[in-house]
């Protein structure tokens, strides 16, 4: 925790997480294990489910609104909307199905396009790690893709509850770090020091940033 925060009361942060990936890769099972500690053997394709839960991450309270999405094509109409709302994304594939990893490439591109942000918090999850004998995606492949994305890679199993908490907590840490960094930058920028070059540099950056974020004009 940065020293400036010590001893200060910090209200719980609230974040929207979106769980994405192909149909049947285990998105609902991972979410159910994380939120309710339960294993679901049967397969019931999701249309859309949301869960609200609270976790403690490095001593900080975080409220999560988790959106478990549909992997099957016919339910994907809402994608743009929830990608806009999401602040962190769990991109899940099954290590036993290489096409499920390929599907994530398009999803990740879409997230970045919609958020207009290459550094949006993402965790790449290779689920069904308990099915080692059916592995179709080498661990090194998942890892090299995650490195290309600048995102962490976990192999997980909803069945054995391996790395389930870890993937959600990693995403929370990324979102918290992002918020902390934004707050620190704004805090420093707000201190007016007429003799400081960095004050003017930051002011210019802030102005340029605002211009960059200005909504684009869309002609329909
Ligand atoms: N062996 C194994 N099976 C799993 C694991 N996770 C999920 N499954 C099984 O895979 C099937 C699909 O799991 P779901 O969690 O419903 O998959 P989903 O990604 O939510 O699927 P959609 O809602 O259709 O997008 C179920 O029969 C689960 O029991 C896992 O880690 N290991
Ligand atoms: Mg599901």
TrEMBL record:
One MF term in the entry's GO annotations: G protein activity
UniProt-annotated location(s): Cell membrane
Alphabetized UniProt keyword annotations: Cell membrane, GTP-binding, Hydrolase, Lipoprotein, Membrane, Methylation, Nucleotide-binding, Prenylation
Keyword Lipoprotein: yes
Principal location: membrane
One record GO biological process: regulation of establishment of cell polarity
Membrane topology annotation: Lipid-anchor
Pfam families membership: Ras (PF00071)
Keyword flag Membrane: yes
GO cellular component terms attached to this protein's record: plasma membrane
Catalytic activity: GTP + H2O = GDP + phosphate + H(+)
Annotated EC: 3.6.5.2
Family membership: Belongs to the small GTPase superfamily. Ras family.
Name of this chain's protein: Ras-related protein RSR1
Taxonomic source organism: Microdochium bolleyi
High-level lineage: Eukaryota, Fungi, Dikarya, Ascomycota, Pezizomycotina
């Amino acid at each position: 925790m940065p020293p400036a925060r010590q001893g200060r009361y910090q209200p719980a942060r609230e974040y929207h997480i979106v769980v994405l990936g192909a149909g049947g890769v285990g998105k609902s099972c991972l979410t159910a294990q994380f939120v309710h500690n339960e294993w679901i053997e049967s397969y019931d394709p999701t249309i859309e489910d949301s869960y609200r839960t609270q976790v403690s991450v490095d001593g900080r309270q975080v409220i999560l609104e988790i959106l478990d999405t549909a992997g099957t094509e016919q339910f994907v109409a809402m994608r743009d909307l929830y990608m806009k709302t999401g602040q962190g994304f769990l991109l899940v594939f099954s290590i036993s199905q290489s096409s499920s990893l390929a599907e994530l490439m398009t999803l990740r591109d879409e997230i970045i396009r919609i958020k207009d942000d290459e550094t949006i918090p993402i965790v790449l999850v290779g689920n069904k790690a308990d099915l080692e004998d059916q592995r179709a995606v080498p661990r090194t492949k998942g890892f090299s893709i995650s490195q290309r994305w600048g995102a962490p890679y976990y192999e997980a199993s909803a069945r054995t509850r391996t790395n389930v908490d870890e993937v959600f907590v990693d995403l929370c840490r990324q979102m918290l770090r992002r918020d902390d960094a934004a707050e620190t930058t704004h805090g420093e920028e707000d201190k007016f020091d007429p003799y400081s070059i960095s004050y003017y540099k930051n002011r210019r950056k802030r102005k340029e940033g605002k211009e960059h974020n200005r909504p684009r004009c869309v002609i329909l």
